[in-house]
Amino acid sequence: MPDSAGSGQWSRLPLLVLVALLTLTGCAGAGALGAGGQTLVIAIVANPQMNDAIELSDQFERDNPGVRLKFVRLPENQARAKITASTATGGGEFDVVMISNYETPQWAANGWLENLQSYVDSSPDYDAADFIPSIRDSLSYQGSMYAVPFYGESSFLAYRKDLFEQAGLTMPARPTWQQIAEFAARLDDEDAGVAGICLRGKPGWGESLAPLTTVVNTFGGQWFDQDWNARLTSPEFRAAAEFYVNLVREHGEVGASSAGFSECGTRYAQGQAAMWYDATVMAGTNEDPASSKVVGKSGYVAAPVQQTRSSGWLYTWALAMPKVTEHKQAAWNFMRWMTSKQFVQTVGSTFGWNRVPPGCRMSTYAIQEYQRAAQAYAQPTLDGISEADQRNAMVRPVPYPGIQFVGIPEFQDLGTRVSQQLSAAIAGQISVADALNQAQQYAHTVGESYRETR
């Protein structure tokens, strides 16, 4: 696929977006000197696995005298905005930032990130060759790693085996979306407080648009065609959006328009949904006795499809070092600690093996304790990551990289705007047709700018 997110593309961001990013930038300053030496400021997403790392961080401080860690922990949408603002403007608030394979190649091309390859090469015990190739490659630019993965994921479907058995239903290993809709209708039980399915409806380019775009892909839709014509009102995109909105409105969770990964995770783990389509990393929470009421009751199958063989996404939360970071060696030492083989062992022995960051290191899947704990979902996770190939995820070729996102700088703004329209449709405030008509206007403006510079 042609990579439209090459060098200099970030300069294409609309002026209003850059202004908004500038207003978000604070002036706290990273790498400040604490009483005992260096203070590393780390911007991190407030997901469960990241919270585990924060709880264990005193071990790093103990082994690295003179370095103090200060975490800025934010929900996904806020973290993306704050980290983007700081990195794009060279604000210098953070020594280490948590970003994904969406940002990494773009920001590396722009010179915003420190090239980590020399640090990786000088740390032989770190064993970067142990990373799953597709994950490692997604965080590389021109053959060098610019971020190191904390956990990796594709997407798949979790379902309650006990509820399926009670209803006399059988889940295929590779279900279609039509089958999922039929199952959701059969299993939806308002009296018991169990939704047929949980799907994200919360606005955000990395929230509701992640699962929705995989549905668009497998329904034959595109954000843009090869000539950068916006295609959000095409029959295929419209069919996918109507299917998704109708499914979650008719058989989804209460308050779906404000439900994201965390909210769906809570509902499913509390037994309030019969199925949940989302990131493969969900499985650790589902099977954690400390937080879940449905331990051992779930099965996991490939992301549902319509016209393609597979539809799961590829994503990784990773650690990167802004170019302006002053304490580079200390920052790398922290990044190496949090993404190491030993960290996996520490999490497993401290919190339980279902809490281990998945989807990054092949060696994790060779640990016997993890094999036993993750028996239900380890192989589906690896299968999803290995099959997450853009050439297989879409029916027609597109000019942009990405599966659950459009890999161009403008997508942070465009995707958020479109997601707001679709969330309004899920809430019943507007029709899907009206939502897509407005979304098409947003996308047309972006596509037009690419056509003009071809």
TrEMBL record:
Coiled coil: none annotated. Pfam families: SBP_bac_1. It comes from the Bacteria. Gene3D superfamilies: Periplasmic binding protein-like II (3.40.190.10). This is Carbohydrate ABC transporter substrate-binding protein, CUT1 family (TC 3.A.1.1.-). It comes from Goodfellowiella coeruleoviolacea. The lineage of its organism: Bacteria, Bacillati, Actinomycetota, Actinomycetes, Pseudonocardiales.
